[in-house]
Amino acid sequence: MKKFLSTLAVSALLASGAAKAAELEVVHWWTSGGEAAAVAEFAKAFDAVGHKWVDGAIAGGGGTNAIPAVVSRLLGGDPMGATQFNHGRQTEDLIQEGLFLDLTELAEKEGWRDFVFPSSLLDACTYDGKLYCVPVNIHSWQWIWLSNPAFAKAGISVPSNWDEFVAAAPKLREAGIAPLAVGSQAWQSTGMITEVLAVAIAGPDAWSKVNVDKDAGVAGGAAYAKVFEAAANARALAADISVTDWNLATAAVITGQAGGQIMGDWAQGEFAVAEQVAGEDYSCLPGLGVNPVLSLGGDAFYFPKNKDADMTAAQLELASLMISKEVQVSFNLKKGSLPIRGDIDLSSANDCMNKGLGLLADGQILPGGNMALSRDTIGQIEDLMVQFWNDSSMSATDAQAKYASIIASAD
Description:
Elements: H1 7-15, E1 23-28, H2 33-48, E2 52-57, H3 66-75, E3 82-86, H4 92-96, H5 104-110, H6 112-115, H7 120-123, E4 126-127, E5 130-131, E6 133-135, E7 143-147, H8 148-153, H9 162-174, E8 178-180, H10 186-202, H11 204-211, H12 216-219, H13 222-237, H14 246-254, E9 258-262, H15 267-273, E10 282-286, E11 294-296, E12 299-302, H16 309-322, H17 325-335, H18 351-361, E13 365-367, H19 369-372, H20 375-390, H21 396-408
Parallel strand pairs: 1-2, 1-3, 8-9, 11-13
Antiparallel strand pairs: 3-12, 4-5, 6-12, 7-9, 7-10
Helix pairs in contact: 1-16, 2-15, 2-17, 10-11, 10-13, 10-20, 13-21, 20-21
């Protein structure tokens, strides 16, 4: 293992003030219209203090392509300046290898625990008592996005819950509208079934028993049987439209080609770019209108260690900017996500963001799947969900049995 800057060196950098101008390659997977507009806010803030943001975007929703590329580079001794991961356990092995900068002193100096809300976001960045990442947003899978014009064209009211949405499908099809748009990437069907449908149909308590407690009995029981029945319904409702990327599925809702999409609140960034107005052009139902709740997923940035003192100082400055009040507002309003600070003004938030802020304030939250399950377990579940989603001959009962088996050995 290469020798990197010591903790004492980092302390000296913090004490010395602003860093000398430096270029930082920042790797992320934000390439859709809304995502690009949001990440540009980070770049502008970093460039404004005299540094240069070198954009290292790697296309592929959910980090499908970016994460393997980042891991390969880190293990190969070719670190970037900063890299995106999701909140949770994706980086455990890399932290154990000593590849990331320890941000504990910076966080203590700036009092991150005084304003990050909920504080569990920082816990997700913590390993063995040290903080290794800066959380930048709260993203929740727990939403369905609905095209108001599509339902108007079909001559029916916009649904208020999942059952009403399923019941509306025949009318939508009669009007030439696909009921549900779902992209073909593995993480989309996986998240829709194991995160959103599971919480809405089985309920938050059952979801927690499966994902947090790894209770295979619940995963294979009656409550989750209804989840997989709903997943089979969703599979049938999504058969009318074929797209790959999540943002193309969102575009189908924006243009009224599809009635709805189950997707995280990052979809809201696409509605914003298309100048759609929440409550007028589109509607949103947290928890599918059944169990309104937020799952605490989201994005965080890690800063790989290097041997250049100026670069390390610039990394710390970028971390500080990402969590600052001004950047948190500008970034999250364009991303469609919720900020990680509880002390900022979001009076310009739209109807859907306000729904999310209300749930957050009321404590209606769950840990995200990435926080509760290891990367290996998530990979096994994704493989199963892809098989189920693409093979209509696989019954809900068979898929549930295989899912329960994975949960039984989950770590």
